[in-house]
């Protein structure tokens, strides 16, 4: 089947499906949002492209699952797991995952932070690496793993090809990527994300696999630390400790052999790291470093090199860097309007990491106790369509009075969302072509305790600010036509040919005397 191409707004092509006969070219829009610039590379199952996010203007990497794997349920599921496992991670040493979805022909796509550098495997092509750089990159990988392990995610495939080196003013920064083999062991993160394999199945890359992986045994965070030990050995010595031409010899080395001794002519820092490496390569999990932090501390103690303490902190920023959040309040509006430049909205109570829309009931004192979960449900735009899923709330989520679960359910225009027994929203969005991202979407609060409060998502272009409630995203008590646009991390009001940058505390006056105040976080 050939790729289905349709014309979207402003003359950009939208690609809704892929096949081996047609691949994205420059200017093609994938999933209604990501404009392809050029190909970055190809892997065993993926093609990766540099693209521009039409919503935020940020350059991203778009990975498409190769068409020959589209019908492979195991590979497709593993591809999606990479996104769902990594999307919760925020370490500066992890390649961020921003979006995941499926095109009309079931081709899956993944949108990641664009790292325009080289892979660690390329850095190692000429042999051993300077011990100071090797130690620093290892510490950065350990910082990424510390967050992942703390969130119940085990990578299971740490190797040079899965570590990108991002150029910075201070040198190259190591970033861990490709959680395609990750196993989530914390059901609280996502109860549906588990990797089910046949007994004794081997998943990983032979040179970096711990003995328990070879034996099909239980894995834990120390399995990743074994791979880090192999990685550090290889960077310091120029070869993997148990490298061999035949797979049985590799297997025997990992299960039975002690790692080769370091050459005494190696630099002093490399020799100082040998005990750290040997501990990481212990055959028994309980003999290895107890955590990524413990291994990092061992490296720091013998090299004097440290990564910033905050790199091992688990706090998640309140807002994504690409998200603009503002509140519009005034006599021109029926209640408060929250404006978000985001394709992902979390519905819940206030003062929560990643909270997007406040849902606390405000009618009376008794109603304050009738609230919703801190992270109740999430709405995400993927492939030009909106999906909602419950986040394990205690009171449940409904769509048009039908209960939903963690499994995403597609939203249609005018759907009524129920958050527990009290909170109700109507979901609407701008007209758009199939598979394209609409200019805006809106959640109108319907229940008596919050009626009039709305959440406006600026998704593609400008959202109208006018009087007609049938077509306007916001309703002003004026005939003056205006629109809102998210632009470069700011909110812009457009009136005719005039554009006004909205700032925190801005006061706007419309025809007829209607006033609007702006609060931006």
Could you explain the architecture of this structure?
With 521 residues, the protein is α+β, with helices and mostly antiparallel strands. The protein is 18% helix and 30% strand. The protein folds into 3 domains: 109 residues, Phosphorylase Kinase, domain 1; 195 residues, Orthogonal Bundle (Transferase(Phosphotransferase), domain 1), CATH 1.10.510; 197 residues, Tumour Suppressor Smad4 (Sandwich), CATH 2.60.200. The chain has a 10-stranded mixed β-sheet, with no helix packed on it. An 8-stranded mixed β-sheet has the order 1-2-3-4-5-6-8-7, covered by helices on one side. Strands 17-16-18-19-22 form a 5-stranded mixed β-sheet, with no helix packed on it. Helix 3 runs antiparallel to helix 5 and helix 3 runs antiparallel to helix 8. The chain starts with a strand and ends with a strand.
The strands making up the biggest β-sheet line up spatially as: 21-20-23-24-25-26-15-14-33-32
CATH topology of the largest domain: Tumour Suppressor Smad4
Q: How many strands appear in the DSSP assignment?
A: 33
Dominant shape: elongated
In CATH, the architecture of the largest domain is Sandwich
Structural class: alpha+beta
Q: Roughly how many Å is the radius of gyration?
A: 26 Å
Please outline the major beta sheet. Answer: 10 strands, mixed
Assign the CATH class of the largest domain. Mainly Beta
Q: How large a portion of the residues is in β-strands, by DSSP E? A: 25-35%
DSSP summary: helix tally: 8
Poorly predicted runs of 5 or more residues: 1-21, 186-202, 315-321, 351-355, 362-368
End-to-end separation: 46 Å
Overall helicity: 10-25%
Mean model confidence by pLDDT:
79
How many domains, in number, for the residues?
Answer: 3
